[in-house]
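User: Can you help me understand a structure? I only have the sequence.
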Amino acid sequence: MDVVIYHNPACGTSRNTLALIRHAGIEPTVVEYVKTPPGREVLAAMIRDAGLSVREAIREKGTPYVELGLADPALTDEQLLDAMLAHPILINRPFVVTPLGTRLCRPSEAVLDILPADAFKGGFAKEDGEQVLDTDGKRLA
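Assistant: Let's start by predicting it. Here is the structure, written out as tokens:
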């Protein structure tokens, strides 16, 4: 299964999502989007395919969101995309693309919606110890 994760290794949610994908026996293509941001068309398609608005795909915390005035409701989607491409840290993470769909995986277990349900063998806990899969590989929440 071809899986792409737009990953930030400094983000716990992104690390947990990557670990869940690997727990499914899948080695994804990992794109460190801060270093290698997606192109405009790819970013816009990911946002659309995830069922989000451009504004919903922007990360505010730990970014130049306020300094850039991005809370202004008059800004268009095109202007917001411009800001995200100029400052990739503004792209919320992690986005995951699989043949079963595209999701912004916040929380990390949202990735389970777009991976084969039968791929998981055994339990899985996040970095903080929160159990996500039971010992049979079934989703807990």
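Now, to help you interpret it: The mean pLDDT is 96. The domain at 4-133 is CATH 3.40.30.10 (Glutaredoxin). Let me know which part you'd like to focus on.
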